[in-house]
Amino acid sequence: MKKIDDYLHKEVLVLGLAKSGLAAAKLLHQLGAIVTVNDIKATDDDLVVQELRVLGIQVVCGDHPLSLIKDSQVDLVVKNPGIPYSNPLITLAVERNIPVITEVELAYKISEADIIAITGSNGKTTTTTLIYEMLKEDKKQPLIAGNIGKVACEVVQNATNENVIVMELSSFQLLGTIEFKPSIALILNIYDAHLDYHGTRDEYVRAKGKIYENQLKSDKAIINFDDKDVCERSEISQAEKIFFSTTTELEGGTYIKDGSVWYKNERIISIKEIVLPGAHNLENILAAITAVKLRGVSNESIVKVLTTFKGVKHRLQFVEIIDNRRFYNDSKATNIFATSKALQAFTVPTILLAGGLDRGNEFDELKPSLKYVKAMILFGESAPKLERIAIESGIEVIKCVDNVEQAVSTAFEVSEKDDVILLSPACASWDQFKTFEERGDMFVQAVHKLK
Q1: Residue 185 and residue 321 share a domain
Q2: For 79-133, what is each residue's pLDDT tens digit?
Q3: Per the annotation, does 124 bind a ligand?
Q4: Known binder of ligand: residue 350?
Q5: Is 120 annotated as a binding residue?
Q6: 351 Cβ contact list (under 8 Å, min separation 6)
Q7: Can you give the residue ranges of the Mur ligase C-terminal domain (predicted)?
Q8: 263 and 379 part of one domain
Q9: Per residue in 216-258, pLDDT tens?
């Protein structure tokens, strides 16, 4: 990693002691900062708290005392991405013009390796994984980080200029960046999401767009030609712009023609050879191909990955066939758009398992995608709203249950031979689970119990 003195003797408040907070605190301490960590859920008995204190790092547990900023000379706040800007400590820091960043900014500052950064409302994890696998197949020494895999500022510490870091980024992470500048930046799509956090759609779009903001002419901006918001936001980038499209043949871009994927008038692969299910994944595939071609990856390596890669865990993940019923785990579908795309991947009778955190939105936009849905099994805070949509859509079987495990057994009871049973919640998981991964794991375990 780069040896920098940007944080030497600076007073830094790290807010939130999750994986990113722990990694940021250790790195800042290593860089000579005077670090204080604050976490409302932590206790003095936690091992991570004790670990930091052994290093000489002050840890304040149990609440967010304003004195951490009022009574000190804090130069910088590094916050957990999930902590909203309405947090009193963050509000006070902003009022006092104290920079507030996420650990992604730290990672960029010390990284010796080029960064390929990926964001978007949906498809980030699949696209990030595809890019990583294609680079790996072509022996480009990639590392994966960010919103997938290890914390970014932890990964970059062991990276050299021989590596390339493939970094999945959320709007939460990007909002806390100032100088962050990837050599290749990609926005897959922009759809209404996380408005409870950002407040308005414009603020959400602005946060996503920060991935392009600091790019120079020597950098590359990959842009979804089919997404108006992405195209408009990309105008802030000075980088060379490369477009991809699933609907339009593009000179100098990546596109579909004659049933195949093409890059700059060069045929890469027939769509029939691609094993990743779902028409929506073509967008992810085109974006990934664009990114790796800019890094000199061979067509042979791209084809090898696309003819073997079946998807990532919790994203339209095939789980099992039981009594001729096919089970799919799409727990990462935390918004309506993602669930709509998952449903469009199937043209057979489908039983949809959905529900979760009620963010105040309705689900009317889901109706056009319910064409093949014969039953809906609902759970969580949003179950009543989804029940209304099911009734208005003429769904024959509607069941409300307490949790995902009950949803699996209920779905199996009402299913028939050749049905698809799909967990695609259209909601965040935080009403009943810590993460969407935990929700998906419960689904998979419940499916295996059916055997």
Answers
A1: no
A2: 999 899 999 999 999 999 999 999 999 999 999 999 999 999 888 999 999 999 9
A3: yes
A4: no
A5: yes
A6: 373, 374, 375, 376, 377, 397, 411, 414, 415, 419, 420, 421, 422
A7: 314-427
A8: no
A9: 999 999 999 999 999 999 999 999 999 999 999 998 999 999 9
